[in-house]
Design brief:
214 residues; phosphoprotein; 2 domains; binds 6-O-phosphono-alpha-D-glucopyranose; magnesium; Rossmann fold; DNA polymerase, domain 1; magnesium ion binding; binds magnesium ion; alpha/beta
Length: 214
Amino acid sequence: MGIKAVVFDLDGVLVNTDRFHYLAWKRILWELGKEFSVEDNEQIKGVARSKSLEILLQMKNITMSEVEKMRVLRKKNNLYLEYITEIDEEYLLEGVEEFLELLKFNGLRTAIASTSDNTSLVLEMTGLKKYFDVIIDGHKVKAPKPNPEVYLVCAMELQIEPDECAVFEDSRAGVLSAKRAGMKVVAVSGRIIGEADKCIESLKNLDMNILDFQ
Ligand code: G6P
Ligand code: MG
């Protein structure tokens, strides 16, 4: 069965915003008197904001009232927004625009599936919005990855069956979410993550064979 639509995660696949999420969390943990390493960050990659905080509180043995959690979540987002004030097309990852042009040229439908509430803002600031037929973000779905909801809603809005969709993801939670939705998955991480069907380093120099899963 051929691929008819390609669905992309945003942070870390199309745009180099992952490090800003990382820096914002690092600052939050520093204020709480805790270290936060790149390895720690792997545990929350692709995970929604409030779920990320729960994981971090457990990891670092911190207890916090619900009110304090709300304050920290707001602060994390404000820090992230400060970090991204300057982003533009320079922050696109390698090969992104060329690959999106190639997909359009070949008549494929395209979508974004991100649980970030800042999806629209990032797409606008980097000039990517025009490439997508469907955009599903944290305002449209509540269940965070690895729940398959974000990918299932995407397929529904694209009006394409999940098994005719190929997904590009860089996180364990994201790969799991897309596989649970019944889609083909390319891990953009240089190594196979979970049940991913293929893996690549980046979107640079891709041709249409990347969508061949036979
Ligand atoms: C993406 C990122 C995560 C982030 C999540 C929520 O999945 O990879 O690092 O926590 O979105 O983003 P938000 O912008 O709503 O905090
Ligand atoms: Mg990601």
